[in-house]
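I'll show a typical protein example:
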Amino acid sequence: MPIPLPSAENRFINRTNSRKQNIAIMPKRTLQPVKKPNRPNRGWLLTLARALQTTLDTEELVRIFSEYTAAIINYDSIHFSAPGSEIEFQKGELGKHSCHYDVVLHGDNLGAVHFTRNHPFSEEETNIFEDLLCNFVHPLHNSLRYEKALRASMQDALTGLRNRASLDHNLAREIQLAGRYSTPLSIIMLDLDRFKAVNDTFGHPVGDQVLQAVAAEISESVRDSDIVFRYGGEEFMVVLSNTGLVGASQLAERIRIAVENGAISIGKYEINATISLGVASLNGDENAHHLIEKADDGLYQSKNCGRNRVTVIKDTHHEPLESPTKHGTSQA
């Protein structure tokens, strides 16, 4: 039995569209006759509802919904996207005719479901889609709320970067992937120089804005494949998949220069921040603890040798590639 919607406004906005195509440029394709669908009965809808209650993973939820929907109505493709989210699901080949639903609950747009095929959808089929979506809307609402809460738990509230809990999860995964595919993995650990003096001189609200500005500089300096974390306090970490020591040290130096050259204007103050960095790569059977320990030791050596520099640790003995020089990077 379909789950009733709370009010008339919480309906699915259905937009069907049959797009005219130029036959001369369309590849020829044999069209199969579409059977008139049987309206799903109460028992079948109850089975669908139970299946949709088995997961809080939105992508898996849409996959289950697509399989049950395809058992009732023939279509070539399904596409789902949630507004303001990276969640997107697509399956099948785009057809000429489309049937689009905006899934709305209590005025909240949960996402858009888009069906296509090379035959027009009948009115009866669109009615069946609505019956199926009635069973989909509440599980979708629950999964999106869960994933939003999960993302929030993995995000640093001040800088918007991923937090320490997210680092533990992602670094373990990256180490596993590096071992499986024999690819390099490096990390950069960095720390603001003399940050306590900033807080003591200008106050903690200004210090928070400095952290936000430095976090933005780091994010703008890295590649799309790199992941930036706030490690704690004024410390940050960058995880670089498929990157060796040379590439990691070059990126670390680029970050250092960007922060040094980026004057931070906060009200009547203009603050020039610098950072010290340590770089390390995964060797052999090292785990996350060993890798972080090496990068942290490189950071400590950068601090100990005058700050505002990069130190690259080459092995498990925590020896730098060469003695770090002021405003520079120890290179291989």
